[in-house]
Amino acid sequence: MTFTLTPTYDDNPRLQDLVGRLREFLDGELADYETGLGLAPESGCTRAQLEPVWRRSRELGFYGIHLPKEHGGQDLTYTELAALKEEVGASGRILQHSVLGDMGGPLRAGPILQYATDHQIETYLKPVIRGERACCFSLTETEAGSDVRAMSTLATPEGDGWRITGHKVFSSAGPFADFSVLIARMAPEPDAPEDAKPVFSAFLVDLDSPGCTVLPGETPMSGEHIESDIVLDNCRVEAGQLLGKVGDGLRIGLGRVTTNRLLHCPTVLGQARRALALTVDFARTRQVFGAPLGALQSIQHKLADMATSYYAARSMTYDALADLDEGREPRTEAFMCKLFVAENAFRIADEAVQIHGKAGLVRGAEVESIFRKLRMFRVLTGSSEIQKNGIARQLLMPG
Question: What region holds the Acyl-CoA dehydrogenase/oxidase N-terminal domain (predicted)?
Answer without folding.
Answer: 17-132
